[in-house]
Amino acid sequence: MRYRVIQEQDRRYPIRLMCRALAESRETYGSPRIWDALVKQGHRVGEYRVARLMRQDGIRAKTVTKWRAPTQSQHQFPVAANTLDRAFTVEAPNRVWAGDLTYVWTLEGWLYLAVLLDLYSRRVVGWAMGQRLTVELAEQALTMAVMNRTPRAGLVHHSDRGS
């Protein structure tokens, strides 16, 4: 049974109450939050008693792992000089393109997106999506931009120091 604790405690507490408490907490409540919720509902119970009962019954909050960015900044690839130097105002189209990679959570997992903007018009000139954050994703966005805009020599392509 998925909720063994509910079956074991059904004589002590109403099943509806236990189910509602588990659903509302998404199993992320530890004893301090459970105690606080019980007190707010008008129950007279001690914080240490809640902790002891949870420990006895093996009830623990799920721990959430800290999110980490997937960027690999410790690579051995050469890094180009920052010729743009934060001069984001551009006098004509197709002189400076800025690129970046980002990610969006979907029901199927992470979706990675590479985008290139023309800093003159602030319009998207190239983009690519994929299931993995790769160099090829950035290259696909750049290829789309070059095919759509056919820039002249001297174009500056600026990005952070990722892919």
What's the total number of strands?
Answer: 4
Order of helices and strands: HHHHEEEHE
CA-CA gap between termini: 47 Å
How would you state the average pLDDT, rounded? 81
Domains, number: 2
Q: Give the count of helical stretches.
A: 5
Give the uncertain stretches in residue-range form: none
Q: Percent of residues in helical segments?
A: 25-40%
Major pleated sheet: 4 strands, mixed
* Shape call: rod-shaped
Radius of gyration: 27 Å
Strand order of the largest sheet: 3-2-1-4
Structural class: alpha+beta
* Strand-residue proportion: 15-25%
Summarize the structure.
The protein has 163 residues and is an alpha+beta fold. It contains 5 helices and 4 strands.
Task: Outline the secondary-structure elements.
Elements: H1 4-9, H2 15-25, H3 31-40, H4 47-56, E1 96-106, E2 109-118, E3 123-130, H5 135-149, E4 156-159
Q: What does this protein look like?
A:
- The chain is α+β, with helices and mostly antiparallel strands and 163 residues long.
- The protein has two domains: 53 residues, no CATH class; 64 residues.
- Helices cover 32% and strands 20% of the residues.
- It has five helices and four strands.
- It has a four-stranded mixed sheet.
- The longest helix is centred in the last third of the chain and has 15 residues.
- It is rod-shaped, with a radius of gyration of 27 Å.
- The two termini are 47 Å apart.
